[in-house]
Amino acid sequence: MAPGATAKLTVWRKGEEKSFSLALSESPKDREANAAAPKSGPTDDGLPKLGLTLAPAGEVAGSGSEGVVVMEVDPNGPAAERGMKTGDIILDVGGKKVATAAEVRDAIGDAYKNGKRAVLMRLKSDNVTKFVAIPFARA
Question: Can you list the domains of the chain with their CATH numbers?
Answer without folding.
Answer: 27-135 (2.30.42.10)
